[in-house]
Structure formats: structure tokens, C-alpha cells
Amino acid sequence: MFAPYLDRWSLISDGEPIITHSSRLLPVLWQDRPAMLKVAADIDERYGALLMQWWEGDGAAHVYAHEGDAVLLERALGKRSLLSMAMDGEDDEASRILCRTAARLHAPRQKPLPNPIPLTRWFRDLEPAAGRYGGTLTDCSAIANALLADPREPVVLHGDIHHGNILDFEARGWLAIDPKRLHGERGFDFANIFANEELPVITDPARFRRQLAVVSREARLEPNRLLRWIAAYSGLSAAWFLGDPNIQQAETALTVARIALSELAA
What Gene3D superfamilies has UniProt attached to this entry (predicted)? Predict the structure, then answer.
């Protein structure tokens, strides 16, 4: 799958392939620069590459070339990791970096992004899941519907802001990869900071409350509005996990949703 692009773009393999559920990646050298060749395996990844081009390296990795399912990206070489920071005593600073990067991505651009996916479509699986499973998902679905009916500060969204999608590009700083090409209220992009399943402490209510203060202040969001987006996003995440099915991760997402709902009721 990599060979046609290695030839077309005069690339030199520079590492072992990385295989994920949605893409195939290969570290390469392009014109003596470290780069990452990524071949999409689903439609979301193909849409994401178009958004990466649109950002033109401002807040996100540069796109060096793009054709069909393949995109050639600037490669992150920095040693720092936001996930490691969050687990090793720098949780607050990691959250601030995520917020600052999201703010760069949300900044207005001169040219429009063609055909972004509206959040109303992105949330289409939540209401049916709430009808099937009830409970916490019913509350999350009601909150999501209210938010989507009354959007504030609509922007082009990354759609998957978390500790593994903002990388250390050394002199260029912290930059985003793997967006979803969404459009809607900017508050949505900050909810996933609270829902990254790779971070074991996301179900700790004390940590949740501390990060709520950090993120709402850094992102300039009303805590109540942010809590509602966290509940909505966590409900959607749980709906997707239940559909897989992945009961353990669904329960983690539901636990985060319950913490947010509890804070809203306080």
C-alpha cells in the first residue's frame, strides 16, 4: 500500500509501519526532512487530511503532499508527551496546552472549509442509543439536543482533541494531528480532554473538578456550558462503545458523564 507513494513522492522509508484501525502509517524521509506517510482506511481519515491542508501548518502538522487516500505529513520528533505529563504531575499544564492548541485551530481563516460535518450529524447515534439503553444516556441525549439546537461561537472543529493527538514538534511547538473535520460550537472540542480513556484518572471526581476549573479558565468557557458538553460527548462516546460492543470503555465514558451530570446538579 505504501509503494506507489514512495515512488511518486520520492520517499525513503525511515522506520517500521504503524497499523491502526483507521489508517496505515510509515515514517519516511522527504527531501531530507522527517515525514509521516499516512494511508487512510476510512472516510473520516480522508476528510481529516483535507482539514489538515486547510490549516496550513498553523496549529497543526504541515501537509507536504496529498493524493486520494494518502497524505504526507510533517513528523513530530519531540520527546515530550501530554499523556505522560498528565500522569506525572503536570496534568494542569497538559490541559492548558490542549486548550491553547485548540484555540489556534479555531481561529478564523481567510478561505472557507468546504463541506465540514455538522455536529448534529456527528451526534446522530446518541438519541437511538438513549432510546435503547436509557439511564444516563437519556440525560446525555437531552443535553446534547439542547446544545445542538442553540449553538454558540461556531467554528471549524478538530473533533478529537486529546492527549495523543497533540504532539511535540520541538521548535514548532505543540501541534495537532488526526482531526475529524467538524463544524459547530467551539466548546465541543474541549470535552474530550475529560474523556481520554488512556488516562486512568478521568473517573476521579476530584481530578475532574480541578480540570474543569483549569479548562474553563484557559478556554474562556462557562463551567456550566463546558459540563454540558462533557456530558453530551461522554454519552456519545458511550453509545459508540456500546455499539462495538466494548462494555468496559462504555462504562468508563458513562462514569465521566455521571460526574458531569452530578456537577451540573450541584
Answer: 3.90.1200.10
Residue that has been written with the C-alpha cell 462504562 in this structure: 251
Of 207, 224, 225, 223, the C-alpha closest to 215 is: 223
* Sign for the pseudo-dihedral over CA of 213, 219, 220, 222: negative
Per the DSSP assignment, residues forming a β-bridge with 26 are 37
Residues belonging to the active site = 160
Cell reading at 163 = 492527549
Identify the three-state secondary structure at position 197: coil
Please check the confidence at residue 154 and state whether its pLDDT lies above 90.
Answer: yes
Question: What integer pLDDT is reported at residue 44 of this predicted model?
Answer: 79
47: confidence class by pLDDT, cuts 50, 70, 90: confident
The grid coordinates of residue 70 equal 494518502
pTM of the entire predicted model: 0.94
DSSP 60: B
